[in-house]
Amino acid sequence: MSTALSALTGTYTIDASHTRIGFSARHAMITKVRGAFNEFSGTAQVDGDDPSRSSVEVKIATASIDTRNEQRDGHLRTNDFLEVEKYPEITFASTAVEQVSAELFRVTGDLTIKGVTKPVTVDFEFQGAAKDPFGNERIGFEGSTAINRSDFGVTFNAALETGGVLVSEKINLEFEISAIKNA
């Protein structure tokens, strides 16, 4: 393991103001609708000497969904989709971290949406480490994965006259993470 990664060992807190947890889904089979969650928190235990001993936990407030359309966001918060009153959080807890290459880390874990937990794997590309102007040690990762929303009990749909459905089953999850090392 490189000395550079070894120096990154520690506990990190996700910096929500410099992080994006987003998603995209096909709408009407012809275009992608993109959105994000505006409220979330998370921590990572990074072991630079042995990345397999690293771990990640994230909690996302489902009511913070934002697709830049109030009417659509309101519908996504209902029982048809996220049922935010009954299920206020989406959670992820890693079960394994594997270093695939110098810059690529495969994180597997349990994703829970609407009370349904399924394993998912996200390939994260290490974007680097830096000390910001305030003296904070930061690390950055970007990654994505695809899930089938019906696997998590998110099954609402409508058939289209021309064939197909209104909302794709496949949802792409997107992560652009900046985390600050705890003192």
Automatic annotation (TrEMBL):
It comes from the Bacteria. Gene3D superfamilies: Lipid/polyisoprenoid-binding, YceI-like. This is YceI family protein. Residues 11-180 form the Lipid/polyisoprenoid-binding YceI-like domain. Pfam families: YceI. InterPro entries: Lipid/polyisoprenoid-bd_YceI (IPR007372), TTHA0802/YceI-like_sf (IPR036761). Belongs to the UPF0312 family.
